[in-house]
């Protein structure tokens, strides 16, 4: 069943609009038509919280009514498809994670294409994943973990919030690059997986670096390596995979904003400019940094390149691991 929850932000006093004017191709003046931002994840999830932070600041800049809708279902496909089918006038936008490029390889019957069905508006943020293991495993370094995995009588198990999630695919990518065998234990959501990792019921998993460092404070887990091309300020002592000799795992977990295909270029550019303004606000930067996130921004082409590159990368991982959800 579709879960739709809404949060409406009243219009404020700002200089100029966010979306396309109903009457013509120019950007709307202050108090233009309402804009719906669809987040295909549950309220309170990391993409949702960021989407609401972004939307509130866009409201303040544009003076338009902004509505956040959580359209949840089918691994994010329900909300994503609703935006693909929306009128391409800039009044319906999508804030989503990089699952948008993974799902085409996971679902054979998918009714949207991440390239053909959308106009990329802006790359928003990266959120590094870290490899975390239960302390009882006795691995304090990545090299020790790989050695244990290669010599274990039975394959080490790992958890994820579910089959085909970024956490699952990240581990599949890593274990192939490291040349190790592991057993996947899928959960129904992140919370129970984290609980079982901390309790020693599973041995390893990927999670966002800020959550990993918090979990490691009491010594129940060890944080071994960071995905991405550089270390994260939240945990500067945690080295990347490439620094520790495992290449090809320098992948960021990212979120982006999209509009329906056919949205006029001037509308996309106008929204992109507003988003870039928000991403530079000190309070927004600070909020992201405390969560271990890094603002991205730039022209729409940055997001377009991310979509094209990561779609091919994850398609290869999914094919090699023989993962399918329908």
TrEMBL record:
Keyword Lyase: no
Secretion signal, residue range per the UniProt entry: 1-28
Pfam families assigned to the protein according to its UniProt record, in alphabetical order: TctC
Record keywords: Signal
Family classification: Belongs to the UPF0065 (bug) family.
PANTHER family: BLR1237 PROTEIN (PTHR42928:SF5), TRICARBOXYLATE-BINDING PROTEIN (PTHR42928)
Name of the protein: ABC transporter substrate-binding protein
Organism field: Rhodoplanes roseus
